[in-house]
Amino acid sequence: MNLLSSFAAGMLLTTAICSAVYFTDGTQKASSKTVKVNPSEAEMKSKLETKGYIVQTKDEYDKAAADAKAAAEKKTVPADSKTTAKPVTKVVINVSDGMTSIDVGRALVQAGIIKDAFTFSKDIEKKNLMNKLRPGVFVVDSSMTYDQVISTIFK
């Protein structure tokens, strides 16, 4: 029975020490922290702006959105207008060993970049560019001029 009494006294002493540490430690932490719960609107705005955010009221945001929408509508061209943009076709031409200017011309005609492969070949001969054709991969598009296409492929 003496053993059981010693064990109970030890448990009581341990509980008393732990509760004293718990309650005194928590009191000090609570007093050392001062947290402002409700900062003012100006304080919140200045903190956000120093962090790099843009702060607007709902009215300012709505006005900016409406202005942006109006500006976008001014730039939009009606579908029935004669100034509709022509789609640009981008073509990758793979020139391999043994290809001639007529072969390149056929590939460009098939891609819709030029109208006639024979005329293209004759223009290459007139400009004396037959020997400038080298193997490689070349990118041309339909927005390029005729001379830009030639200078891209025949370097």
Which descriptors would you attach to this protein?
mainly alpha, lyase activity, Dna Ligase, domain 1, lyase, two-stranded antiparallel sheet, Aminodeoxychorismate lyase, 155 residues, signal, 2 strands
What this model shows, in words?
The chain is mostly helical and 155 residues long. Among the domains are: 41-75, no CATH class; 90-153, Dna Ligase, domain 1 (2-Layer Sandwich), CATH 3.30.1490. Helices cover 57% and strands 8% of the residues. The chain has 6 helices and 2 strands; from the N terminus they run H-H-H-E-H-H-E-H. It has helices at 2-32, 41-50, 58-75, 101-111, 117-126, 146-153; strands spanning 90-95, 136-141. It has a two-stranded antiparallel ribbon with strand order 1-2. The radius of gyration is 40 Å and the shape is elongated. The chain starts with a helix and ends with a helix. 8% of the residues are buried.
Shape: elongated
Largest sheet: 2 strands, antiparallel
Helix count, DSSP H or I runs of 4 or more residues: 6
CATH architect. name of the domain at 90-153? 2-Layer Sandwich
Head-to-tail CA distance between termini: 106 Å
Secondary structure category: mainly alpha
**In percent terms, what proportion of residues is strand?**
5-15%
Order of helices and strands: HHHEHHEH
Which strand order spans the largest sheet, edge to edge or round the barrel?
1-2
> How much helix, percentage-wise, in residues?
55-70%
Overall pLDDT level: 82
Return the CATH class of the domain at 90-153. Answer: Alpha Beta
The number of strands is: 2
Radius of gyration: 40 Å
Signal peptide: 1-20
Protein name: Aminodeoxychorismate lyase
Keywords: Lyase, Signal
GO molecular function: lyase activity
